[in-house]
Amino acid sequence: MKNNIIIAIDGYSSTGKSTMAKWLASEAGYRYIDSGAMYRAVTLYALRNGMIDTDKHVDTTRLIEALPGLTIDFCREGQRQQTLLNGEDVEEEIRKMEVSSRVSVIAAIPEVRHRLVAMQRALGEEGGIVMDGRDIGTTVFPQARMKVFVTSSAEVRAERRYKELLEKGEDVAYDDVLANVIERDHIDETREESPLRKADDALLLDNSYMSRDEQNKWLMETFRRVSEKVD
Fold first, then answer.
1. What DSSP letter does each residue of 102-171 carry, written as one string?
2. Which of 39, 41, 31, 38 minimizes the C-alpha distance to 7?
3. Does the structure show a pLDDT above 90 at 192?
4. What distance in Å separates the CA atoms of residue 190 and residue 193, rounded to the nearest whole number?
5. Phi-psi bin for 82: left (phi > 0), alpha (psi -120 to 50), beta?
6. Considering only Cβ atoms within 10 Å of each terminal Cβ, which end of the chain, N or C, has fewer?
7. What is the structure's pLDDT at 193?
8. What's the burial of 176, exposed, middle or buried (CB within 10 Å: 0-12/13-18/19+)?
């Protein structure tokens, strides 16, 4: 069915994947699933329970043992997306630098990825979804009919993230945000389990200097073109 395809949007941190995925899901009448928020939720759980310290050392044994007891889901309240960790809305907390600076370390743990990939597949098994992340088109849904890989320069992404954090009232320095972006890129690209890479059949979107309208036009044109090919 034309309204039942899976759309995978992968790419680097702070490229605006979530924003474009939310917009496309809304326009297409699909459900939006933020896989990155799921890894952030696990990171927040690890922080709250003393499973990861300031030096990013993880008590993997305890965390792995806790995974079966974690539930992560999404819902909407008006225009606001909520990430629910064991029923609690943690959307605001998981966006803070304390979580951002540790999420790639948690996401590199194979058992965490296996658990969340299973959750993601269950959420999207009926299609009609837009899911963004790092390995959606390569690992979670390699059969996705529309795949996009988003990139932009580290400096552009750091500037976007820096402004976003300032608007939220966080006291951060641009150099620290840039360092975090570069570190996350390295961890994501070099981890053994599902490293960040462009799927062979994914379309590349470099949005470094695209306006929001230009980006949305590209996404919708691509969606319509792919949808028309579906039997």
1. THHHHHT-HHHHHHHHHHHHHHHTT--EEEEESSIIIII-TT-SEEEEEE--HHHHHHHHHHHHHHTT--
2. 31
3. no
4. 9
5. beta
6. C
7. 86
8. middle
Residue-wise DSSP of 168-182: TT----HHHHHHHHH
Residue 158 structure tokens: 């750091």
The pLDDT assigned to 1 comes to: 41
Strand 88-89's sheet: what is its strand order? 72-77, 80-85, 88-89
Name the residue among 13, 15, 14, 17 with its Cα closest to residue 33: 17
Phi, psi for 52 (deg, rounded to 5): -145, 135
CB contact at 8 A, 128 and 4: yes
Q: Which amino acid is at 84?
A: L
pLDDT for 3? 59
Q: What is the pTM of this model?
A: 0.84
